[in-house]
Amino acid sequence: MILLTGVTGKIGGETARQLVAKGASLRALVRDEAKAADLKAAGVELVVGDIADADTVRQAMDGVDKAFLLLPNGEHQEAWEKQFTDLAVAAGVKHLVKMSSMEAVADAETPIPQAHWASEEHIRASGLDWTIIKPNFFMQNLLGSAGSIKEKRKFFLPMGNGTTGMADARDIGAVCAEVLTGSGHVGKSYEITGPEVLTFFDAADRFSEVLGEKVEYVPLPMEQFREKMTGILQPWHLNAVCELFREIAEMGLDHTTSTFKELIGREPISLKQFVEDHVALYK
């Protein structure tokens, strides 16, 4: 039995769907049963409750061999992930797979990577078999710009000239599903990227190529982005996202990895393919 968290989000949803396709025995811990109705219909057992509640997590872990830990970034993420890890140890879970990020390193200076790294270290010290999945920017984040691309042929983000190795959520889900059902992954940290290092100006060029019209990336000053998102994100989360985006703008990523191809046996999805697959949203 595999216990999944985060199944109503982009990566968790992809992971769950691909595990269903593999015929895995699955249980998911969800707060909103309605949002996981499609997975329930596909045979995924649901436990409804809050991951912050230890008793709910204990219930969800009963009889579980492997667990997939994916929490939304937030002020309490580190504490809840550490509690989840400790409860997994107590429940006799054999293998814990955590979704982290490439930015999570020992000397991380911004809140989200720092929380991920602290959680990783706790897992590594727990005695559990573990695997860490560390992607970069998700292509699906650009779905949030569909409206402005469709209406104005522009998208606005505070990334400056920063570079990413953006990966498709479908590919990250494929890696998670492989790690949870395959062998040879214990004690590994997998950095997952797409096939290209891209600036967001490059991303605009890929949109232009597919849509057949000029699409422009407009670097948004961070204070304008903060103002735009105030009231949408909680204060801690907004500050952490701004710090992370500032890090991308100032440092970025200078390489891609071959990890996805080595694990899955094919090339990762390109941004051009992503836009082609979602072209109806942008036209």
List the helices and strands and how they pair.
Layout: E1 2-4, H1 10-21, E2 26-30, H2 37-41, E3 45-48, H3 54-61, E4 66-69, H4 77-91, E5 95-99, H5 111-124, E6 129-135, H6 146-152, E7 154-157, E8 163-164, H7 169-181, E9 188-192, E10 198-199, H8 200-211, E11 216-219, H9 222-229, H10 235-250, H11 259-264, H12 271-277, H13 279-282
Parallel strand pairs: 1-2, 1-4, 2-3, 4-5, 5-6, 6-9, 7-11
Antiparallel strand pairs: 8-10
Helix pairs in contact: 1-7, 3-4, 4-5, 8-12, 9-10
What does it look like?
The chain has a domain at about 1-135 and about 170-190: NAD(P)-binding Rossmann-like Domain (Rossmann fold). The chain is built from 13 helices and eleven strands. It starts with a strand and ends with a helix. It has a seven-stranded parallel β-sheet, with helices on both faces. A two-stranded parallel ribbon has the order 7-11. It has a two-stranded antiparallel sheet with strand order 8-10. The chain is of the alpha/beta class. Helix content is about 45%, strand content about 15%. It has helices at about 10-20, 35-40, 55-60, 75-90, 110-125, 145-150, 170-180, 200-210, 220-230, 235-250, 260-265, 270-275, 280, and strands spanning about 1-5, 25-30, 45-50, 65-70, 95-100, 130-135, 155, 165, 190, 200, 215-220. The model has no long low-confidence stretch (mean pLDDT about 95). α3 (about 55-60) crosses α4, α4 packs parallel to α5 and α8 packs across α12. The chain is globular.
